[in-house]
Amino acid sequence: MKVTVFENERVLARTLAVQIAATLGQNPSLVLGLPTGRTPIRLYHELGTLHHAGQADCSRATTFNLDEFVGVAPDDPGSYRTFMREHLFSRVNLDPARINFLDGSAADVDAECRRYEDAIAAAGGIDLQLLGIGTNGHIGFNEPGRELVGPTHRVRLKESTRRSNAGLFGGDPTKVPAEALSMGVGSILKAKRIVLIATGKLKARCVDRVLNGPITTRLPASFLQVHRDVELMLDTAAAGRLADRV
Ligand code: F6R
Questions:
Q1: 205-216: per-residue pLDDT in tens?
Q2: Which 8-state DSSP code applies to residue 67?
């Protein structure tokens, strides 16, 4: 895995936004996989800034978000779709018809997961998958456990994950849905290229384990070791435990 360390979060976000804009210039029909969470917010805002400066054209790009809460409608204030509308979709010129999201309010969530896998395949697969990482090593909503599910599936969220999403639900972790739909580790690993971004010292330990530890279902992100084109973009705090190694 390639590792790039940036002096701070702002430089990381700017650099990655410029890279994505350049990739869109070469391949306007780029298929992007996108995370929510605190980490990519700066990146999304930078993409918006580049778009307004005429330097990022997303009009022919397609996006697939990684995950969504079960039982939450797309226009619910706590939905990941609402989060993405606020931080990215309202800031760039994506065609709404090419924005893909799991529908957590679908009557048949298993059918919804299959529909999503089919939609990714029909789009030709994901060219560039962006990822954040949970402090427990989760990617998407693939939580540590005895086994991992490959394709898009329904997941039970860990209490720690519900707590870290409480901000979307008025600060109350008990209001965070107990379940979510998520692309699986298998769906993620099918992407042609993967860029994982991690910032802050709370991520330092799991970043070190992802790079230098064993591949284990106890740390879902460790499976990125088997992919041939993965880059970890870190700020100095998230890279804090790698100092002696890179
Ligand atoms: C959410 C997702 C999660 C987050 C992770 C880190 O779509 O994919 O895996 O990337 O929980 O969240 P933050 O960035 O808030 O630390």
A1: 999 999 999 999
A2: E
| Least confident among 96-105, 145-154, 156-165, 198-207 | 156-165
How many angstroms is it from 85 CA to the middle of ligand 1?
16
Nearest protein CA to atom 3 of ligand 1, as residue = 140
Among 208, 209, 204, which Cα is nearest to 237's?
A: 204
Confidence of residue 219 (pLDDT cuts 50, 70, 90): very high
> What is the CA(124)–ligand 1 centre distance, in A?
25
DSSP category for residue 30: -
Q: Which atom of ligand 1 is nearest to the CA of 141?
A: 9
Separation CA 59–CA 121 (nearest Å): 20
Residues 134, 197: Cα–Cα separation, whole Å: 11
pLDDT at 108: 97
Cα–ligand 1 centroid distance for 46 (angstroms) = 18
Q: What is the pLDDT of residue 245?
A: 56
Which residues participate in catalysis according to the annotation?
67, 136, 138, 143
Identify whether the C-beta of residue 195 lies closer than 8 Å to the C-beta of residue 157: no
Label the pairing between strands 31-34 and 128-131.
Answer: parallel
Query: Which residues line ligand 1 at a C-beta cut-off of 6 Å?
Result: 35-39, 66-67, 132-134, 138-140
Q: Which domains does the chain have, with CATH numbers?
A: 2-182+193-213+222-235 (3.40.50.1360)
